[in-house]
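Subject: for your reference before the review

Hello V.,

The reviewers asked for a structural picture of the protein, and I figured it would be easier to keep everything in one thread rather than splitting it across files. Below is the amino acid sequence we used in the manuscript, unchanged from the supplementary table.
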Amino acid sequence: MKHAQALYLAAGGKTIELTVSFDPTHPIANKKSVASALAVAAKSIEKLPVGPVDRIYLDQIPEVWFIYHNPTEYPDAVWRTSQVYTVPGLSLSRIAAILNEKHQKLPSYRPCDAFWLLLVVDFIDFAQDQDIDWPDPEFSLSSKFERIIVYKPQFAEWMEVPVEQ
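And here is what came back from the structure prediction:
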């Protein structure tokens, strides 16, 4: 990363910051050519707004998975690497298993007009971390709960599970 940043600055680049994640399916065979390609890519994105860089700017660098660009100039700007991983999709089988477990407990609950179920996903726990988008809008779960809400508090994300009563 230092070499890529030095090449970029030597070509008249600005003191911007980049955070780069490399694609493990494309090992780096030639560090110098990847550094040169990163320097060229940085020149083409230096005026873009802060945020993730569109893949169109990375087509010539298959080794790069992701770049986050900060166009603010800092005297001590550093280019760094970061690990990026994808989380699995919402596990419908796990939702169904939890729902079955909760249905068995319903008779011991105090009588109410309606029962809702809140499922909390904690991204810090790798066993729980998952994307909480409902994978199939046509699919719903049979439930005695009026509403089932899946909530990821650290990201203030939530979604409602489609329910058939």
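For the response letter, the relevant points are probably these. The first strand starts at residue 17 and ends at 22. Strands lie at 17-22, 51-52, 64-70, 80-81, 116-120, 141-142, 147-152, 157-161, 163-164.

Happy to draft the paragraph if you're swamped.

O.
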